[in-house]
Specification:
about 20% strand, 6-stranded mixed beta sheet, alpha/beta, 4-stranded antiparallel beta sheet
Length: about 260
């Protein structure tokens, strides 16, 4: 029997989380991280740093080989059902059933999470409108453009009203219109109490949107804090320059490039 949820538990708590694959690769090396309820949290790092593996361990797509991951106090492994029900995941890769329509995609997802039929249909209509998909409602997903497919993935992640929304590179390769639509909607639900975990390569986005940032590299957290704390700590003016210092590539700083151009 599941114990009642602890109302003081953070939205996400990772303690010494580790993941070693059968190949011997250590994708996560003792990651400890806490995201408070209602936060907009950014997880930044280069490709292969461990961002997606961390998300997979939180959502049950991979089993950690050490440490713990808790979602609103529910263990992501031992109490998977309750932990997963609280999470909406928009993965980096588009993974839609090509034989379903846009509406069916949302409807089936809502059904998987136990939503009643009337609630599913009302919620789907709301999200179709929010992501400019209403006129694509009855189109099979295989006939959609890449940008439209990305909209469906985002709408699907939000369908069951998750308390923790995980966005893994949500704006990679999308147009400006969708990017603005997404951030408008996500900021709205964050203001209403939804916790957001974002991974992105667009550091300006993270700097503008996120309350707290963690930099991950080679499976370990190497720095974390608010955007202003991180820029002050590394005596730079932007989060991008702080990241470049941590990555040992400060020569790529835009400030440095501007200085070079002025010579």
């Amino acid at each position: 029997m599941t114990s009642p949820e602890d109302p003081t538990a953070p939205a996400l708590q990772l303690v010494d989380l580790a993941k070693r694959y059968a190949t011997g690769v250590d994708a996560l090396r003792g990651v400890s991280l806490e995201i408070g309820r209602g936060e907009f949290f950014g997880l930044l790092g280069p490709n292969g740093a461990g961002k997606s593996t961390l998300i997979h361990c939180v959502t049950g797509l991979a089993n950690p080989t050490g440490g713990t991951a808790r979602v609103f106090g529910h263990d992501a492994v031992d109490n998977y059902e309750h932990a997963r029900a609280a999470v909406g995941l928009a993965p980096q890769d588009i993974n839609l059933d090509q034989f379903l329509t846009v509406f069916e995609t949302l409807d089936y997802h809502g059904g998987y999470f136990g939503m009643a039929k009337r609630d599913r249909h009302e919620r789907a209509a709301e999200l179709l409108d929010a992501f400019s998909l209403t006129d694509k409602r009855d189109d099979k997903t295989r006939f959609l453009s890449g940008g439209m497919k990305r909209r469906v993935v985002l709408a699907r992640a939000l369908m069951h009203r998750p308390r923790l929304l995980i966005l893994d590179e949500p704006t990679a390769g999308v147009d400006v219109e969708l990017r603005l639509e997404l951030w408008h909607y996500v900021q709205k639900i964050n203001a209403e109490g939804t916790t957001v975990l974002l991974t992105t390569h667009y550091l300006e986005e993270a700097e503008q949107l996120c309350d707290h940032i963690a930099f991950i590299d080679q499976g370990a957290i190497i720095a974390q804090g608010t955007p202003s704390e991180l820029t002050q700590r590394y005596a730079v003016s932007t989060l991008e320059d702080a990241y470049l210092q941590l990555a040992g590539r400060s020569e790529l700083s835009r400030a440095g490039l501007t200085a070079e151009e002025g010579r």
